[in-house]
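Lab meeting, item 3. Inverse folding demo.
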């Protein structure tokens, strides 16, 4: 959980988003982590489709 909180804090500070309260910080970390996971899954899916079409 510490790594996910670190990534969420970095994301929040980088884009100048208002800091969430201590209770909401965990929810925000899960939300940002889920979005990053979806991006990675989408990239893997796109690469897989590209490689299958290519050869």
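The presenter then showed the designed sequence:
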């Amino acid at each position: 959980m510490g790594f996910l909180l670190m990534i969420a804090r970095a994301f929040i500070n980088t884009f100048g988003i208002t800091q969430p309260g201590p209770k909401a910080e965990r929810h925000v970390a899960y939300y940002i982590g889920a979005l990053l996971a979806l991006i990675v899954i989408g990239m893997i899916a796109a690469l897989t489709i590209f490689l299958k079409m290519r050869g």
